[in-house]
Structure prediction request, 144 residues.
Amino acid sequence: MTDDESERAVPGTGPRLVDQPVTVRILAKVLVTMATIAVGGWWFMFDEVRLVRGDVAQQGSELAKEIDSSARFQLEQRDRLWNRVDALREEIHSVQIEIGDLRARVQQVGQTADAIFAIVSPAVRQPGDRLRHADDEGRSSTDQ
Prediction:
């Protein structure tokens, strides 16, 4: 068997690609290029994930600061409102005390007026009453 015959004896066998130095160099370059692309893609993804993680952390920090300042503002407003409510309650209480004092004074004035009218009322008569009273006694109103 010659070399040609031995190649034909086993179907699908021909000259091997590995034996050819040009093919080996091309395959090596293709593999290196693919590895470089894979490493570059991995590095790009790693860098993007790192950047996104940094952006998310920064946004979270800014959001936390905004929430903190908003919470402080709300607490200040709540404190101001409660202070105002307390002041108004004290003012209402003092007004209620003053109203109670005024009621007591009005009642005292009313009692005093009732006492005065009780004393003065028999002596004070209306003009028609004087005429009738004088007629009852037999005198005229001009005689008095």
Summary: The first helix runs from residue 3 to 9. Residues 3-91 form one domain. Helices lie at 3-9, 21-120, 127-137.
